[in-house]
Amino acid sequence: MYLGDEAWPDLESYFESESIALVPLGSTEQHGPHLPEATDHLIAEAFARAAADRTGYLCTPTINIGVSGHHRQFHGTMWVDPPEFRQYVESMTRNLTSHGIDRVIYVNAHGGNVPHLREVGARLRQAEVAYAIEWMWDESIPELVDDLFEQNGPHGGPKETSMIQYLESDLVHDDRLREAKEGGVPSVDAAGTVRHGSRTFYDAADNTDNGVLGDQTDATAEKGRQLFEAASDQLVYLCEWLADQPFEALLPKEHV
Amino acid sequence: MYLGDEAWPDLESYFESESIALVPLGSTEQHGPHLPEATDHLIAEAFARAAADRTGYLCTPTINIGVSGHHRQFHGTMWVDPPEFRQYVESMTRNLTSHGIDRVIYVNAHGGNVPHLREVGARLRQAEVAYAIEWMWDESIPELVDDLFEQNGPHGGPKETSMIQYLESDLVHDDRLREAKEGGVPSVDAAGTVRHGSRTFYDAADNTDNGVLGDQTDATAEKGRQLFEAASDQLVYLCEWLADQPFEALLPKEHV
Amino acid sequence: MYLGDEAWPDLESYFESESIALVPLGSTEQHGPHLPEATDHLIAEAFARAAADRTGYLCTPTINIGVSGHHRQFHGTMWVDPPEFRQYVESMTRNLTSHGIDRVIYVNAHGGNVPHLREVGARLRQAEVAYAIEWMWDESIPELVDDLFEQNGPHGGPKETSMIQYLESDLVHDDRLREAKEGGVPSVDAAGTVRHGSRTFYDAADNTDNGVLGDQTDATAEKGRQLFEAASDQLVYLCEWLADQPFEALLPKEHV
Amino acid sequence: MYLGDEAWPDLESYFESESIALVPLGSTEQHGPHLPEATDHLIAEAFARAAADRTGYLCTPTINIGVSGHHRQFHGTMWVDPPEFRQYVESMTRNLTSHGIDRVIYVNAHGGNVPHLREVGARLRQAEVAYAIEWMWDESIPELVDDLFEQNGPHGGPKETSMIQYLESDLVHDDRLREAKEGGVPSVDAAGTVRHGSRTFYDAADNTDNGVLGDQTDATAEKGRQLFEAASDQLVYLCEWLADQPFEALLPKEHV
Amino acid sequence: MYLGDEAWPDLESYFESESIALVPLGSTEQHGPHLPEATDHLIAEAFARAAADRTGYLCTPTINIGVSGHHRQFHGTMWVDPPEFRQYVESMTRNLTSHGIDRVIYVNAHGGNVPHLREVGARLRQAEVAYAIEWMWDESIPELVDDLFEQNGPHGGPKETSMIQYLESDLVHDDRLREAKEGGVPSVDAAGTVRHGSRTFYDAADNTDNGVLGDQTDATAEKGRQLFEAASDQLVYLCEWLADQPFEALLPKEHV
Amino acid sequence: MYLGDEAWPDLESYFESESIALVPLGSTEQHGPHLPEATDHLIAEAFARAAADRTGYLCTPTINIGVSGHHRQFHGTMWVDPPEFRQYVESMTRNLTSHGIDRVIYVNAHGGNVPHLREVGARLRQAEVAYAIEWMWDESIPELVDDLFEQNGPHGGPKETSMIQYLESDLVHDDRLREAKEGGVPSVDAAGTVRHGSRTFYDAADNTDNGVLGDQTDATAEKGRQLFEAASDQLVYLCEWLADQPFEALLPKEHV
Q1: Ramachandran class of C90: left when φ > 0, alpha when ψ lies in -120 to 50, beta otherwise
Q2: Pairing mode, if any, of strands F103-108 and F20-25?
Q3: Is-contact D8 C211, C-beta < 8 A?
Q4: A71 CA: distance to closest CA in chain E (Å)
Q5: Across the interface, do B64 and A4 touch by the CB < 8 Å criterion?
Q6: What residues of C are in contact with residue D59 (Cβ under 8 Å)?
Q7: Least enclosed by CB within 10 Å: which of A69, A131, C18, C153?
Q8: Exposure pattern of D135-168 as b/e (b: 16+ CB <10 Å)?
Q9: CA atoms of A153 and A185, how far apart (whole Å)
Q10: Is B99's Cβ below 8 Å from some Cβ in F?
Q11: CA distance D119 to E129
């Protein structure tokens, strides 16, 4: 069920019987010469909608702009700074509980959002307001990702390329995949900016000239389909696990 | 030009020659028994995209969740509190200037966002970071709105109903228009909650049982088309006016 | 009863039997060549004191400095920025409840304070700390204002001029009323800064060279007296209405 | 010169030639059974106005509500919490500099405001925005205070009683001076709440049943007059010293 | 008992039977040419550890960096600004209560921390989270301090010099005591920066060229020993007094 | 060079010639039945002091209390919440630059601090205030850690146990190593709380009954020595690399 499409009286029975919401969160940021800036929020929305369709759980509209300051050197990257992102997400989540939601899956497709969603989730749980957890599609199927790609990226690599080839093929510049690969770096390791145990970089531009990593020529829409289906399964399982828990079991453990 | 669809190298020439961005902002909130919760962000996005298409200026992805706490009593309303909304919008706008944008039109379709967008805009202008102004479609064509409807609402009334009938007809419950009218109130005045000059209400629920005002039976998709075209013209003119100004002319006046 | 004049033991019986306070809030800002910078806080205080005298309800000392950044270009305008104003007013109001006050009328005489007082009031009500509402004298008697003046201003116009002529005649430069009119603009509309539905101005100085609007030559102390008495009546009625409500009736409505 | 009384054009020459402002700050809080809650802001305003009259420097309207949470147990005490007070004063002071003010004397009559005014002043000076210092009348004439009273208070004692007897005699309950003395304590020391070097009290109510300290029967209006005149002299001298300094001399010293 | 040395299971019985913690707080800041920058946190830690050893109460690790911006002109001074200090200490203290601590002694050795610790303590007490009070060694033995030294400083004077000579003699440059005295000032009074009742200084550098006050040549390790023992006694007594109080007796008094 | 031990004049030459500081940061939190709560700050301090000794660079006093809310269920864990930690560290670092420091290594020994130190570092770099990076000893020698231990933990495992056995052997309960192992879990994976790609845990207590992971019986002081020496080498190399960079090379890259 997609919240945005519904009139309020039609949501009443959902809130009476269910307490889960899936909230898609992405980013609007450079994804190399071949992928659209919308990449992350398109992916997040696709997963959240698919899982909502399959399970009947509620999907909300998408938060399209996240924590992407580390891509600031590339045209078009939009972002909010971390404190503002956390506060926006926390306020939105707290308010969602006024309708009876007490568990939220942040269906996230942007690595830069992760620590902030974790911080918000920890705070909400500790306050016993809601149990909100972060899910990222590629983390749910690490073996398949490894099987399909030699150099998966992460950012703007074949993993994300395949996904957009599958979901929104018109938005991929297939004729730039080689350029994407050659203008970027194979991996963070290859960039040589982790020095003596310290990440001495802060921005994507410290590591890669064109903003991407990995071997984009390894991407296909068919791989995207496999990834999407496999990860959607995982998200569905997560929804089911979450729905099965009594709320008390989701709260912080007692002091020893 | 829609920022979300573009790869970063394809935005370079835009930022070299132009400095305007249209940012759609709406809300996700109850709009009565007949309209979807997405109403406001659908409208905002439609106007911003249309004006961007007609002028070639840049449209960004949409901020879907705004300041809607005054609709909290109705199922499904999502919101962030005012400080968090202002900070999110301000941070986003400041960061957008890193690419050369120095003037922004907040293409807004939710009255509850207005004072907050004005506050952010005033702060950004005073700091000489950007000149950002708020635009709401119905404010741009007050006479046409008055001509078309006896009781225009505002919230969830025939004005917004016509607009969604035109833009997303599948999302309107046409069979509930009479119910919408009969369960609501004709206007804020009719609710009688402005007492001795003081607005003694804070929430929509203080004024209306079903969340809406006005005569929804007066709405048609054809009226929606007229409204959309007329207001789109105004937005295009505003873009053109704005693009013509030297940045200095947009900054605060000197102290007398 | 004026709180500032009382010793604490003499307030005990008031707090035992009543729970209303009137808090005057104004601004210290330019009001054109003819009116004093204190205009708004003088007016607010006069109304709050008068209504307290007539009803026996408690009036507190005045908050003299408000949100007036939009008058910054004119000598002597004092202001605090919106977040600081809201926080100051909210903290003051929350603390006032420690004595048993649970309903507050912000007797306000400055338009620039309005959205901020509304925001604070909404927050306090939602938190069930207090029911605080904003009242502005001219909003309570719109017909009389329209009857008395062709071009009422708003800022520094004949409406406010008459009021100070009545309340503090020594502080009005009657010999500058023509200059005030000729150096200003008749109305915001006349300034032409609402473009295609967007308020493209932020500061008074964007609209008027001398800081004022309307026809000041239309002002008289006698009109001021009429306005003061009529609006005072409204404030008294508002106090009485408010005192009659059970606190529960003032709280937010339940979720549908 | 009192800013509140002036129209903006009449302030121009002041700001062209001078850069000092006196800002009165007080509190609205219990001052025992005999003194009005306005005591501190009345005193602050009286000193600031007097010094402005004698020197020609600018006095602004008064901030009437300060940091008085430690008097919360007594009817009618109003306060804002420390962070909100500091932010309000800092914002007001920063904005005042837009007219050319670069040095401010906080004419303060409430001990509870002191550390907060010092903190704000330090921040403004360090930022080279303004040089703002706190002045309290009794600190400027310690010997005279000691000469006139055996047990001066501080809070609501004979020092403040004499001052209000002189400034606003109608607001003093002279018939309660003995009651004030007998219901309070002679001094903080006498309350016995400084234990082993630690102030174990936070509120006035921890030390005194009726909210006051000292021997109020020792107060007279004539003593008030002497105090007022002597301290006014000191404030005038401070203004003169401050006006004589080049701004650079008021800024923080260089790093060694 | 020192918390840092213990494994968690070994703390269980303490928290079952006791609810006091001693938290040492100091600063890292210049203390003249003869004393180490660690002076204040070394002293704070020494007192807290000693009192914990003598009483069996719990001592936590030390907060080494405090509010020392007023020493910024001297090499090596470290500090956090007041809001950040208060928030850090408040958060730490609130969280400490999760183990059952409800009373805290801030064993402080830096005057610049005092108002901030008082502010945090007042807030925590008002919220009924914890009763936390500030203790500074020299405030507990004013007579002995006066007996031992003619000009005790305060900052970097013979009082602190003696203490470090006793506690960490290797860190005192005994050969620079005369230089310390001659390069500094005897007292704040002697600096002449309290003008007409106003402290016109903000930084130590406004008063003293080498950062210190008092007569350092009057310091000896033996005096340090006397001071340490006498003040340790006071801290022990304070612990005992505090442990004897029922928690209710430590909370704010009721409204009159 | 250890800042805490120095008198300010003795730091002058350092700041004239160098601009690096090492700031140790740890935590005070449960580390199982066998290790002291001080574990992380002891380790951080030991590395920072050792590297400072070997290179001559400046080491500051330690921040002993970090972000450890996820250990709250175990007696004695102390923490500040993430916003307060970030603000404290940011303020401290900004202020340190007043002496000429422009590059900082956060010598960190607590995983929970990492994202917060990264966030602060990114902000400071973007503002061009300082280049501050986080370093954690075990990240610098991943191969040696893998070689030495089968199940390294992370928290309270053999890696940290060996380190404390080497650095502070008296503080390790060697007789509880088997108990530590048997009461905990081998790894996060083994806890089974990463479900379908989502970390469904927030607290250590969600994963482990006694607070620790890994095989503590595999720890020895000799392994601790090897780890300490190898990682110290890495920290020294990092210092040298950092000192060799021109400041401009450390700043954010230009926009493409």
Answers
A1: alpha
A2: parallel
A3: yes
A4: 29
A5: yes
A6: none
A7: C18
A8: bbbbbbbeebbeebbebbbbbbbbbbbbbbbbbb
A9: 9
A10: yes
A11: 26
The yes-or-no reply on B/E contact (3 CB pairs or more, < 8 Å) is no
DSSP code at position E122:
H
* Token pair listed for E182: 């001659």
CB atoms within 10 A of CB E250: 17
Residues in C closer than 8 angstroms to B143, CB to CB, are none
pLDDT exceeds cutoff 90 at C151: no
Contact E255/C at CB under 8 A: yes
Q: pLDDT tens-digit profile of D38-79?
A: 999 999 999 999 999 999 999 999 999 999 999 999 999 999
Residues of B whose CB is below 8 A from D98: 255
For chains B and A, tell me whether 3 or more CB atom pairs sit within 8 A of each other. yes
In the predicted model, is pLDDT for residue E154 greater than 90? no
Residue at F202: amino acid letter: Y
Q: Residues near F240 by Cβ (< 8 Å), separated by ≥ 6? A: F55
Determine the length of chain F: 256
**Residue E31 pairs with which residues in a beta bridge?**
E35
How many CA atoms within 13 Å lie on the side-chain side of A148? Answer: 30
**Burial of F194 from C-beta contacts in 10 A (0-12 / 13-18 / 19+):** middle
Q: Specify whether the CB–CB gap between B135 and B141 falls below 8 A.
A: no
- Going by the DSSP 8-state scheme, the letter that residue E116 receives in this structure is H
Which two three-digit tokens encode residue F151?
């199940």
Interchain CB distance below 8 Å, C36 and D84: no
**Which residues is C105 bridged to in the sheet?**
C22, C133
Q: Of F62, F81, F88, which is closest to E84 when you measure between CB atoms?
A: F88
pLDDT for E55-74, tens place per residue? Answer: 999 999 999 999 999 999 99
State yes or no: pLDDT of D151 exceeds 90.
Answer: no
What stretch of H or E contains C101? none
Environment class of D243 (CB within 10 Å of its CB; exposed 0-12, middle 13-18, buried 19+): middle
Of E140, E198, E206, the CB nearest to D134: E198
Query: CB–CB of A159/A138 below 8 Å?
Result: yes
E113 touches chain D (CB under 8 A): no
Domains and CATH numbers, chain F: 3-192+202-250 (3.40.50.10310)
| Distance, CA of A170 to chain centre | 21
pTM above 0.95, yes or no: yes
A85 touches chain F (CB under 8 A): no
AA identity, residue E178? R
- Interface residue F169 vs chain E (CB under 8 A): no
- Percent of residues in chain A assigned helix, strand, coil, to nearest 5: 55, 10, 35
ipTM score for this prediction:
0.97
With beta carbons under 8 A apart, name residues in chain B contacting C109: none
Q: How far apart are CA A212 and CA D49, in angstroms?
A: 67
Q: Token pair of F81, please?
A: 């919440």
Q: C103-134: per-residue pLDDT in tens?
A: 999 999 999 999 999 999 999 999 999 999 99
Instruction: Name the stretches of chain B with pLDDT < 70.
Output: none
d(CA C240, CA A238): 57
Query: DSSP H helical segments within chain C, as ranges?
Result: 12-17, 39-55, 82-96, 114-126, 137-140, 142-148, 158-167, 177-183, 188-191, 221-244, 247-250
Contact B122, C204 (CB under 8 A): no
**Distance between A198 CA and the closest CA of chain F, angstroms:** 5
Which residue is associated with the tokens 């991943």?
F142
| Distance to chain C for D61, nearest Cα, Å | 7
As a whole number of angstroms, the distance between CA A108 and CA A26 comes to 6
The residue in chain E having the minimum alpha-carbon distance to the alpha carbon of residue C97 is: E255
